[in-house]
TrEMBL record:
E.C. designation(s): 1.5.1.5, 3.5.4.9
InterPro entries: Aminoacid_DH-like_N_sf (IPR046346), NAD(P)-bd_dom_sf (IPR036291), THF_DH/CycHdrlase (IPR000672), THF_DH/CycHdrlase_cat_dom (IPR020630), THF_DH/CycHdrlase_NAD-bd_dom (IPR020631)
Protein name as it appears in the record: Bifunctional protein FolD
GO molecular function, one term: methenyltetrahydrofolate cyclohydrolase activity
Cited function: Catalyzes the oxidation of 5,10-methylenetetrahydrofolate to 5,10-methenyltetrahydrofolate and then the hydrolysis of 5,10-methenyltetrahydrofolate to 10-formyltetrahydrofolate.
Binding sites annotated in the UniProt record for NADP(+): 167-169
Family assignment from sequence similarity: Belongs to the tetrahydrofolate dehydrogenase/cyclohydrolase family.
One Gene Ontology term from the biological process aspect of the record: methionine biosynthetic process
Pathway: One-carbon metabolism; tetrahydrofolate interconversion
Ranges in a coiled coil: none
Length: 284
């Protein structure tokens, strides 16, 4: 079998961001202000600092204002919720991103749910999850939404396909399953307690790996020709899929880096611009 075709997230993201930039320019021309994304970072975890810097750089490049809101590592849940509530009530802020993960002593769910649904451009609140599950208007979780854009760009129609999602986190695995279900896939969600995981993965037409363990998914687990999306990112630029093994089995395969990551940021910017238009009650 020939090697898997790579799914180039950089190219897909560029298309999304260029369209978002055009809409951001329209918004500024009509309102005199740029769409504004507030990035809230608790502590100074090096990986989180890097992620926030990348997002802020993308904002600057594509005509979106980025307001950085650093918080000390020692902040309490109550103080963080108060700060996020203040941003939610600030009309000059159109989108709010709370960088994940937060320190262990913080109630992350309470902090996420302090974000107004109209400004939840990262799609992390309970209200946004409900919107995804029930097919209502709202903002999708950025990584799962970015994965759907990748599938669309490579003409992968989930309808009738068996999709296996490995991971059940509230901001990746669970919303990923909702978005795939909405597109008529048959979805199996696997996790650390799943029995005989390799056998389940072998039945999948589409595999989404979001387990947070380097090279966890082995090539021999995969059905020949499967679409394999690696949503993991581990130390050393290694994903959750054993790339070298998978490329000889899969039909389509996302690289790490250069696959899911760029589309995640692109969807974040796109949803920030959409939020700005909605809050001003004007159409693009």
């Amino acid at each position: 079998m020939s090697e898997a075709r790579p799914m180039n997230g950089i190219e897909v993201a560029r298309d999304i961001m260029e369209r978002a930039a055009e809409r951001a320019a329209q918004f500024e021309a009509r309102t005199g202000a740029k769409p504004c994304l507030a990035t809230v970072l608790v502590g100074d975890d090096p990986a989180s600092v890097t992620y926030v810097r990348m997002k802020r750089n993308r904002c600057a490049k594509y005509g979106i204002e980025s307001r950085h809101v650093p918080m000390p590592e020692t902040i309490t849940t109550e103080e963080l919720v108060s700060a996020i509530t203040e941003l939610s009530n600030d009309p000059s802020v159109h989108g709010i991103l709370l960088q994940h993960p937060v320190p262990h002593h913080i109630d992350e769910r309470a902090a996420f749910d302090a974000i107004a649904a109209t400004k939840d451009v990262d799609g992390v609140t309970s209200q946004s999850f409900a919107a995804m599950a029930f097919g209502r208007d709202g903002f999708a979780s950025c990584t799962p939404a970015g994965i759907m854009r990748l599938l669309d760009a490579y003409d992968v129609d989930p309808r009738g396909k068996h999709a296996v999602v490995i991971g059940r986190s509230a901001i990746l695995g669970k919303p990923m399953s909702m978005l795939l279900l909405a597109r008529d896939a048959t979805v199996t969600v696997c996790h650390s307690k799943t029995a005989d995981l390799p056998s389940l993965v072998r039945t999948a037409d589409i595999v989404v790996a979001a387990v947070g363990k380097p090279e966890f998914v082995r090539g021999e687990w995969l059905k020949p020709g499967a679409v394999v999306v690696d949503a993991g990112y581990n130390e050393g630029n290694v994903g959750d899929v054993a790339f070298g093994e998978a490329r000889t089995r899969a039909g389509l395969l996302t690289p790490v880096p250069g696959g899911v990551g760029p589309t995640t940021i692109a969807v974040l910017l796109e949803q920030t611009v959409t939020a700005a238009f909605r809050q001003q009650q004007i159409s693009a």
